[in-house]
Amino acid sequence: MDNRITQLFGIKYPIVQAGMVWTSGWRLASAASNAGILGIIGAGSMYPPVLEEHIAKCKQATKAPFGVNIPLLYPNIEELLKIVVEQGVKIVFTSAGNPSTWTPFLKEHGVTVVHVVSSVKFALKAQQSGVDAVVAEGFEAGGHNGREETTTMSLIPMVRRVLDIPLIAAGGIATGRAMLAAIVLGAEGVQIGSRFVASDEASAHQNFKEMVVASKEGDTKLTLKELTPVRLLKNKFFHEIEDLYSQGASKEVLATHLGRGRAKKGMFEGDLEQGELEIGQISGLINAIKPVATIVQEIVSEYRSCLQEIKSRGYDI
How confident is the model over 198-221, as a mean pLDDT? Predict the structure, then answer.
């Protein structure tokens, strides 16, 4: 599996472990990198000193490349980016903001920059800003999402048609079969989040991991578009939000009910009733919590077996 993505990051397989809030700490990132893919520390739930600690521990746990994901909408963004540069992190994934603001700063310090988008429009803007690659994420994905609700199967070929730089597909990908489909659609690699939530090394609470494993088709929904669109597992908090919608609640009322710290309460502290439980639609296909190395090998093995399966059907590839 040698292509522009493996060469860009210096990894064995063109797979990126997504940098998710309250889930992607140094243990998950280092385990992913040691398994031959790109591990990512999710800085979205970290204060600057915490991020610095996770970077240091990740360096100790792996000699392989790893990166940091930083949402650009955070108020302490400048401090987070300075820590990344000072600590010698060479790969940064940015999201939720304008990449042209900070990409030049990162590039000046020799950092490879990848930006996450949910539309063709923003993919082109990311390319124009000078990023090295783009992650195009369909609305099947967990966590914060695009308002357009464009599916991965539609988004990837549309972005591929206009993009010159490497393209990574995300959203609804948890298996080797889905990885192969994304590559056929035009991606050169995949970013996987939800599958790694249900891993031994993820920092998410065990209650949340077990709820992900128990979830079925239809157990998630994209909501709170008036604030920041987010895909959630349906729990008591989710149904309270639905009730507010049915009453015609304003944006201010929704924001007040959401409050602060909902994601931490649910995903990190394990409150399955009042917490925000961010996960993708593909959670219905996840049925076991496993070590990261096992998950990676299962994905790669299935990818290869699917190639052989297609050949056995008589398709000329």
Answer: 97
pLDDT digits (tens, 9 = 90+) for 222-281: 999 988 889 999 999 999 999 999 999 999 999 999 998 999 999 999 999 999 999 999
Cross-strand pairs, 116: 135
Cα–Cα distance measured from residue 61 to residue 71, given in angstroms and rounded to the nearest whole number: 24
Please name which of 247, 264, 210 lies closest in space to residue 46, comparing C-alpha atoms.
264
Q: What are the pLDDT digits (tens) for 127-163?
A: 999 999 999 999 999 887 777 889 999 999 999 999 9
CA atoms within 13 A on the CB side of 68: 30
Alpha-carbon separation of residue 258 from 43, 207, 226 (angstroms): 21, 21, 12
- Which is nearest to 122 in space by CA: 80, 181, 72, 174? 72
Of 317, 315, 310, 307, the C-alpha closest to 1 is 307
| Longest CA–CA separation in the chain, Å | 58
pLDDT at site 316 = 66
Q: Which domains does the chain have, with CATH numbers?
A: 4-204+291-312 (3.20.20.70), 210-282 (no CATH)
- Cα-Cα-Cα-Cα torsion 68, 74, 78, 83, nearest 10 degrees, comes to -30
| pLDDT per residue as tens digits for the range 76-123 | 898 999 999 999 999 999 988 899 999 999 999 999 999 999 999 999
Q: How far apart are CA 311 and CA 317, in angstroms?
A: 7
Sign of the CA dihedral running 247, 252, 255, 257: negative
What's the one-letter identity of residue 65?
Answer: P
